[in-house]
Amino acid sequence: MSAGETPGSADPSRRVVGVSVGESHTLALTGDGRVYSWGRGTLGRLGTGDEEDVPSPAPVVFDHSNEGAKRSGFVGVAAGAYHSLALDGQFFIAPFIGFLVISIGAWITTVKAGGMMSLAIDSLGALWMWGNCPNKGDAEEFCLVSSPSPLPIWDFHGHTVVKVTCGNEHVIALVTYGETFTGGDDNLSCYSWGNNNHGQLGLGDNVSRARPSIISAFDRTSSWAIYEISCGAFHTAVLARNEIGETMCWTFGFGENGQLGIGTTNNVYSPEPVESLPREAMLVSIDCGLFHTCVVSDDGCVWSWGMEKGLGLCPDATSQAGDALSPLRIKPSGIDRSPRFVLPIEVGCGAAHTVLVDDRGYKLWAWGRGRSGVLGTGQMEDSFVPCLVAWPPSSGDGGQRAQGVEAEEVVLLQAKLERMERYAGLLHLCLFGKGFDERDLSRLSNDGFDMRRELEELMETSNDGELVRMDAFYRSMHREVKERLMQRRIKGIVKDCLASLAIGDRSSMG
Question: Which residue ranges does the record assign to the RCC1-like domain (predicted)?
Fold first, then answer.
């Protein structure tokens, strides 16, 4: 095993190569083409055959009884608000009337899902849409049309749709200027259409569009080229790079909960950069939740902003409520207190939770609301800091979603261990003025841990400034302890006096 390689990393069944997060559920795709789901099961969105909630990753069992041959595995997943899609590696488009010439023999390469709609891109670069689709009404005005089967988007005929994403009622697509995609970001234009009541189309107004319109801020004259796109319920976020390789996040649309990350709660009708993100950061992944946004850099830094710090957007969320109007750093929890994640590759946001694919796909983190088991930890508790998802799932369950009592106990112990690690780290920081790391574990031997000796050694090796800091810290703590003791004594004296007065009153009345 090479240095830094994750144990078991040779097994593709343990590696997550794709993740998609819905309103309160998550889908994960592994390297061997298997699909796992967890979270809220209402409406059958987990694919388990019922509507029960699933608190930790469970395999989705697909019925291939009507297939002439065994499938080669799945290559894509997409979670809408209340539904899910899985893309089979051998799925072909049915020949729809009016699209026969160019769609026969083409297969689906990408699937996406939004609030109440689904999207697909085929191998020829054509875009398909079904569900509640933006369209023209009788008066040629914008409306939503319900379509139970995929419809082609004719506006991009002669071009190649490279990426697409959607929110509740709007769509964003990256499309080539020419007929084919050459691989460069500067070869793509960004289109938007659908509901625009909050400016989520980025077209400079709040007028809804039934057909795709190009976002002028990123046309051929712009110095910024988009390479990643994501839609929230009513806002949009994109990643773009300039000629010198700098990357930047741009947002527009509904801003009431700070999900645009620009420091205000105003709606924005044209793309604005999230200026407070470090300019030197190389941004690699972005996703929008219902009312929050999260972005990841290639060096393991994660930022999030938007609705309610209770989503885990802030370490002090348990004591301080409110929305995050600007990006906040999210750091991994654990004993080493590392400020960065290890080789994160993708992030996904739901209505009130976030999932991060870390360590090249061999580790999953989640934070936010825990009800219905959406964090995948086996528990229903909220988590204000990233906690490890129960991944990889235990094997040998015959394809059943229940992980068994032993696995649940392991997850519970893991959650308790993380709490103890956070407590130990805080205590160690207070005592020694530095974080607790792996090197400190060697001192916790079977011979016991001599706190007095550790303090003496620390003081012996500390410089004058560190000793002054230590003296000030312990003086402050000692003063606060004495004040608390004095307050309790005063309360005790007052209580005794009141009790004596009450007894005296009753005696005089008798």
Answer: 108-390
